[in-house]
Automatic annotation (TrEMBL):
InterPro entries: Cts1-like, GH, Glyco_hydro18_cat, Glyco_hydro_18_chit_AS, Glycosyl_Hydrlase18_Chitinase. The keyword Plastid does not apply. It comes from Gossypium gossypioides. This is chitinase. The lineage of its organism: Eukaryota, Viridiplantae, Streptophyta, Embryophyta, Tracheophyta. Gene3D superfamilies: Glycosidases (3.20.20.80). One of its GO terms (cellular component) is extracellular region.
Length: 264
């Protein structure tokens, strides 16, 4: 959602190459802030311009694709001040994006499948409370999926405590942009990323995914050529009981990468 030229959500789902799509980002929320959605050039939420995405979200869901709203990201103003603040944010998310009712739903009447935590700023406090509050809404009939995108240094500084709740269905680890942490691929070196993957398999989560840049331009470092991924990395990690697949950042950079690895 961070490049208006990347095609529509419907186009993305129609490729048949994605099982999960994160809409990014709700990057202003918490600590008394008025929640703010930033979908770059796709639409202007200030003028209710993003409600038109509702039909596209439903189209994806009708194809069996789960669509999540991603919180945070690399830029924005977000934090949680207390347990009460976490509960307040959870209530807002439920009423405006999930199964609740609000007269001002930013993405229209589509009911998203869940919430993705891409927390890259602030402290690690109260994200576990947010996860618990959101998970509690699953008791109202429709499951609220919880997903997370931690950085590869283990445990993640922002999300470690939240992930330890065991409430997350999918965790897509960002194995990029952490060159000094020895947890990602560097040219000719698969050892670090494989060792890091093995650390991450210990978490209490439904499935874990290998998060990668979809092109060399998608991240400062950590890009893995498709042939290296399919021949030297996937054969090893796919034996993990919790292996869920590959996550790519992002649709705008995916100019052939997913097509090159989809059958691996």
């Amino acid at each position: 959602g961070q490049n208006g030229n990347e095609g529509t959500l419907s186009d993305t789902c129609a490729t048949g190459r994605y099982k999960y799509v994160n809409i990014g980002f709700l990057n202003t929320f918490g600590n008394g802030a008025t929640p703010g959605l930033n979908l770059a050039g796709h639409c202007n939420p200030a003028s209710n311009g993003c409600t038109s995405l509702s039909g596209e979200i439903k189209s994806c869901q009708n194809q069996g694709i789960k669509v999540m709203l991603s919180l945070g990201g690399g830029a924005g103003s977000y934090s949680l001040a207390s347990q009460e603040d976490a509960k307040s944010v959870a209530d807002y998310l439920w009423n405006n994006f999930l199964g609740g009712t609000s007269s001002s739903r930013p993405l229209g009447d589509a009911v998203l499948d869940g919430i993705d935590f891409d927390i890259e700023a602030g402290s690690g406090q109260y994200w576990d409370d947010l996860a618990r509050s959101l998970s509690a809404y699953s008791s109202q009939g429709r499951k609220v999926y919880l997903t997370a995108a931690p950085q590869c240094p283990f445990p993640d500084a922002h999300l470690g405590t939240a992930i330890n709740t065991g409430l997350f269905d999918y965790v897509w680890i960002q194995f990029y942009n952490n060159p000094l942490a020895q947890c990602q691929y560097a040219s000719g070196n698969t050892k670090d990323i494989l060792n890091s993957w093995n650390q991450w398999t210990s978490i209490n989560a439904g499935s874990i995914f290998l998060g990668l840049p979809a092109s060399p331009e998608a991240a400062g470092n950590g890009y893995i050529p498709p042939d290296v991924l399919t021949s030297q990395i996937l054969p090893t990690i796919k034996s993990s009981a919790k292996y869920g697949g590959v996550m790519l950042w992002s649709k705008s950079f995916d100019n052939g990468y997913s097509a090159a690895i989809i059958n691996s």
